[in-house]
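Handout, section B. The chain below has 391 residues.
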Amino acid sequence: MKEEGFLRDVEALSDLKLRLGWGITGQQAVVDQDFPYLPTYNISNQYAQYLFGDEGYNTLRPNAYNQNLKWEQTTTWNAGFDFGFLNGRISGSLDGYYRETKDLINKVKIPVGTNLSSSLIKNIGSLENYGVEFSINTKPVVTNDFTWDLSFNATWNHNEITRLTDADNDSYYVDSGDDAPRGNGNKAQAHKVGYPAGSFYVYQQVYDADGKPIQGMFVDRNGNGEIDLDDRYMYKKPAADVLMGLTSKMLWRNWDFSFALRASLNNYVYYGRLAENANVAADGLFANNTYVNVIKEAIDLGWTDFSNYRSDYFVQNASFLRCDNITLGYSFKNLFKSIYYGGATGRLYATVQNPFLITKYDGLDPEVSSGMDKNPYPRATTFLLGLSLQF
């Protein structure tokens, strides 16, 4: 558009392009089983054999399969523009998008006795994503000795399940995510129409006058006089509302200095480590009568059983600011130069990876993609010293 007559004489504007896009992509990754659309069998072990005479023979157990399983299908509409000012000193883009995904793949419960299992992988519904993406690249300073490149990007996204059943059913949900600690196969996340995918499906904790959670006490949300599965509610989500990134690189003569930052806003995590260990029985003993070192939170709470393991008390705001790396380098040339050799060039640098993290989340790392923190191995802070040479 820069070449259009009404913009040609705008000297400050160096580039302007409009973009429109549309496309369909497929996704076939499944949550369990390698070939859930084909009949497969498992061989039994020595404890599940049948006898024929004096010999024991292994049996074959059929697995549930869904011959009608098909790929997830995502249709994307996109509109945006690229811009540039001051001969490229400032450039960037702004995009708006809408994505609709149909035939979501998930493992769901089915009536016992059907299809040889109590669960089946199938296409269960649809979801939508829409949002805005923005990026800008600048050169705030450009001189003979000093150059500074600065880049920033931000994404806002809204995610919502739009269909799970053929007919409208506001109470229907599908379990999702990893098992909750101490949950014995039960989940603390679910898909439900009108909510973000994988939202936490938990009980509403009751607190005392001092703001301390009371063991085993939850809000009776359906008002039937007892606490049951129907008292759970959709609460928060693991996906962030806003993601941001900032990178900076400065060059001064032979020196260079750079860093990269990332931020995630309003993402939530189920603090599984606390849910699994927030229990201390009388006299410092667990139920199996073994002495243990309990975590401080368990002492503070004073709980003696695991009745609270799916409480919204364990769902924490995990917004964070992380520095991915910081690098300082020095470039040189004419090393070992002589009348016979033009000299080598090279660069000496020092890098720190994952130097710091700012968050109010109590766990080891707030960056848990699934939303279920089951005590993952923490990211290490790494120090590197390097030398590169070109002869």
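Note. The radius of gyration is 29 Å. Compare this with the example in section A.
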